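Input chain follows. Return structure tokens only.
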Amino acid sequence: MQFRAIKNKPERHRFQLAEYLAIVVSLVALTLAVNQLDAGLGDPLVSGGLLLFLAALVAFVVLTRRAGGHHLLNLRILTNHAFTYSLLIYVFLQLVQISLTFVIPNLAQLTFNQSALVAGFLLLPEASYPRF
């Protein structure tokens, strides 16, 4: 039996600057808009930021749907229903966990008049639980 070594050369692809800029603009606009939400939706920074976010997000999706070439993100993976449902479940569970780590200490301090130390200790069992 004879073995032959296969020489693989790494493929070089051109960096997709337009897709990168669309992602950066959309995330920066969303961050700025969310940070100013206390001024209300009528604030030009909030409404303009949300509109810019949506426009940049649409631009990103249009750029990634172009045929051929290699893209920063392969959005076709979202057509797999099992993957999409698993992703939605994961995002939902993360939102629940983040909200509970905010609600539990505030409930302890504001409702039950406990100290910040006790409120922090309430989160200790969750923080020490091993994650795999």
